[in-house]
Amino acid sequence: MRKTFPLLTVIFAMLFVSCSTVPLTNRKQVNLLPSSIMMEMSLTSYGEFLKENPPLPDDDKNVQMVRKVGGDISAAVNEFLKENNLEKRLDDFDWEFNMVNDETINAWCMPGGKIVFYSGIMPVCEDENGVAVVMGHEIAHALARHGNERMSQQLAVQLGGMTLAVAMQEKPEMTQQIFLASYGIGSTLGTLAYSRKHEYEADKIGMILMAKAGYDPNTAVAFWEKMSAAGGPNPPELLSTHPSDEKRIKAMRDNLPEAMKYYSGKGGKKKPVRL
Q1: Would you say the pTM of this structure is higher than 0.85?
Q2: Contact (CB, 8 A) for 148 and 38
Q3: How far is CA 30 from CA 21, 152, 223, in A?
């Protein structure tokens, strides 16, 4: 019993320190991976990805649209967190918005605000409001630290409960692959679908963020209905990591009144620029 007590004390201390609250939903979550490690892996993976997939040039009209919308929504994130004394949640964020020439229908946001759109998703987005749906949703996943939760779970499964420090030293490639899969980036392990809980949460947060930035949140329902209809034997990459069904669509409709309060507060001034 003397040996067990110190161990339990350490475990409870880790859980206490790692417990946080998700902005806007107030859900309690436990992320066992240190933020510093997540940021380090993010910067490494992001740099390697862009070396293998050079970003499209700054004068590309789609790149300009993604960066404009990204700037609007990241400003809304900064404003919201400041209003609620949560600025520290963005201490390690340095927003970057890039697009790669890839017909895959996909986009993702790594810890630290590293966001990449694939050119294949732009015809589905159609205009700035569509880009805002995807942008808000992916930023919401990062803001809510869903990737940390998923990676914690997968490390336990794939590495048999091995500690992160040991895993990174003895199995660095597998640890990095789990990180990539946790953020919907193709890897030898495939990609991991977000849980229903995470999807609903990112939908709600994403709709509020896009509305706060001045984009119509009604677009979110139409976008994911379209994505859901595109399912089948070969669904878009984005749909494989963000499963959609009627219950999820209904939850989005239920969240619309709250999101519209933020949109009305901005006066709904954004006029969508079509591709």
Answers
A1: no
A2: yes
A3: 9, 9, 31
How far, in Å, CA of 175 to CA of 130, rounded?
Answer: 33
Domain-wise residue ranges, the chain: 32-265
Contact 192, 203 (CB under 8 A): no
Q: How far apart are CA 10 and CA 273, in angstroms?
A: 54
Of 96, 128, 138, 149, the active-site residue reads 138
Residue 26 sits at φ, ψ, to 5 deg, of 65, 20
Q: How far is CA 96 from CA 47, 55, 93, 125, 195, in A?
A: 12, 11, 9, 20, 26
Amino acid, res. 196 = R
Q: Which amino acid is at 238?
A: L
Q: Residue 204: which region, alpha, beta or left (left: phi > 0; alpha: psi -120 to 50)? A: alpha
Question: What six digits make up the tokens of 124?
Answer: 């589905």
Q: Does the annotation mark 138 as catalytic? A: yes
Identify the sign of the CA torsion 59, 118, 209, 226. Answer: positive
Residue pLDDT, tens place only, 104-159: 989 999 989 999 999 999 999 999 999 999 999 999 999 998 888 877 777 666 55
Q: Judge contact between 262 and 211, C-beta under 8 A.
A: yes
Q: Are 164 and 37 in contact (CB under 8 A)?
A: yes
Phi, psi of 115 (to 5 degrees): -115, 135
